[in-house]
Amino acid sequence: MKTPNILVFMADHYRWDMAPPYKRAKTPNLDKIAEKGLAFDMAFCPSPHCCPSRATFFTGLYPSEHGVWNNVSVGNALSRGLFDDIPFFSDYLKRAGYDLFYSGKWHISALEGPADRGFSEGRIIVGNKSDYFLALGNSGPATYEWKFYTEDKGSWRTAVCDREDGQIIRPGFPDFRLYYTNEKPFSDEAVVDAAIEQLQNRRDKGRPWFQFVGVEGPHDPYNVPKRFLELYPLDEIELPESFEDEMLDKPNLYRRTRLCFSQLSREEHKKALQHYLAFCSYEDYLFGKVLDALERLGELDNTVVVFTSDHGDYAGEHGLWAKGLPCFNSAYRVPAIMYWKNGIKNPGRFVDEFVSLADFAPTFCEIAGVEENFKFSGFSLMPFLKGEKPEKWRDAVFTQTNGNEQYGIQRSVMTKKYKYVYNGFDFDELYDLENDPQQMRNLIKEPTLRPVIKEMCKKMWQFASDHRDVCINPYIMTAFAPFGPGIIFEE
Predict the structure, then answer these.
(1) 426 and 252 in contact (C-beta within 8 Å)?
(2) How do 38-44 and 336-339 pair as beta strands?
(3) Is the alpha carbon torsion for 248, 251, 256, 257 positive or negative?
(4) Rounded to 5 degrees, what angle do the CA atoms 467, 119, 92 make?
(5) Which of 385, 417, 438 is the last residue of a domain?
(6) Are residues 479 and 365 in the same domain?
(7) What's 49's DSSP letter?
(8) What CATH number does residue 191 fall under?
């Protein structure tokens, strides 16, 4: 078999249930490749933020291993880039003879860009050696420029005024509207056009290639072309079952986060969901442009196509939007759909095993026939493509975050039955996912579930030990977990 090309289309904030098989959003192009390919129904990112999850995708490692914990381009960033000597899968593919092309969102490191990892750059956006910060080292300070003040003072509110539709008034902060119409959201169409141009203009047509297409949508604010909004009549929009959850049994930060959206009426929340759905359909349209270009160039039959996202979006669940420390599955569960005409046995399948963004790096290396020794924390998905189930596969999903601009150590472990969340900044959470998939009722205080909590803590600490996670400090003022890491040594 000829060495295949690989194309990755990565969206931003794209929830798993906006892709096949759920049909919540109208996605004809995703439907087409899912019918001819393979969809991983239980795929998760490791962190509810762009940079650490994208770093995991490219390295096959978790945040505790690659060193990116949050948005690398903010003033109080915990890290500006990866630990030294952390390879990307692109490093291996380059040495294996692949041409590498990159167009779109980077947002992995403020210290390097795609070209530093072997890529030919198309239109690069967001987080590539940031325009707003001058990083003086991986752990050093940064110089912050208040460009919002100098360039557009009028966008900063100094007093409460009449709200516009979808607007959230924040005195002293920039104007924010959660949704509106826009015929050219972000730079997404330009990013896609640049990627297509890269493929058309390849010099060595005999070499396999890897193309990354990184769009910003459906990231908030949800600004979409009107023609996609018309696909979703407002009177047909239904808010999530958990929308009314006041979260009285959950961490205070969760409720404070919900307050950000408390100015919006129920009707405005429905409009926000309408715009989010439309945005997902818009990204599907752009994805279709890429598929059409591959077909036109005669490349589709020998190309592995992947559609995924860096993380999800609450999309109104628990009254929340976007993503953050509220550790609900909607912020972590992502679409993961693969197409490979000659490489997927029994296409049209949906796999319900736990999959991580960390699994793509080893998968791409195996597809490319990389023979180098490498160490990934993820596992190759090739057995699933072949219609097989690995003898040993993960029975739990783990997440890692220390917060983003708002710091907060948080770890979670989830099985098909339970989800336990350790919150270093507040009380913990436990959910019975079989009976409460919406995570409405926190069972952490239920005495009969104490053995379950212990078992979940044991899994969490074992994962921490295996993946160099030093989130625990045994000092009495910081060791808040109900069971400490010593339990992993119990007989």
Answers:
(1) yes
(2) antiparallel
(3) negative
(4) 45
(5) 385
(6) no
(7) S
(8) 3.40.720.10
More confident residue, 157 or 48: 48
Query: Would you state the pLDDT for residue 394?
Result: 96
Asked if residue 482 belongs to a domain, the reply is yes
Token pair of 376 as six digits: 């990934």
| Position 164 in a domain | no
- Dist CA 413 CA 436 (whole Å): 16
Asked if residue 318 and residue 197 are part of one domain, the reply reads yes
Of the chain, the end-to-end C-alpha distance in Å amounts to 50
Q: Are 214 and 237 in the same domain? A: yes
Concatenating the DSSP letter of every residue in 348-412 gives SEEEEEEEEGGGHHHHHHHHTT--S----SS---HHHHTT---SS--S-EEEEEEESSSEEEEEE
Place of tokens 């808010």: 239
Closest listed residue to residue 279, CA positions, set 220, 196, 192: 220
* Token digits of residue 420: 């336990």
State how many domains the chain has: 2
Write down which residue in 385, 419, 439 finishes a domain. 385
pLDDT digits (tens, 9 = 90+) for 148-157: 444 445 555 5
Distance, CA of 39 to CA of 307 (rounded, Å): 9
pTM: 0.94
Q: Encode pLDDT of 423-466 as tens digits.
A: 999 999 999 999 999 999 999 999 999 999 999 999 999 999 99
SS3 29: helix
Residues 94 and 227 occupy one common structural domain: yes
Q: Which of 130-134, 209-213, 220-224, 226-230 has the lowest mean pLDDT?
A: 130-134
User: Does pLDDT of 146 surpass 50?
Assistant: no
Whether residue 172 lies inside any domain: the answer is no
Of the candidates 487, 400, 482, 398, which has an alpha carbon nearest to the alpha carbon of residue 445? 482
Interatomic CA distance for residues 472 and 475, integer angstroms? 9
In this structure, which amino acid lies at residue 433? L
Same domain, 349 and 473: no
- Domain coverage including residue 419: 397-489
Stretch (H or E) spanning 39:
strand 38-44
Q: Interior CA angle at 280 toward 295 and 309, to 5°?
A: 80
Which pLDDT belongs to residue 155? 52
How far is the CA of 187 from the CAs of 201, 238, 243, 306, in angstroms?
Answer: 21, 30, 31, 21
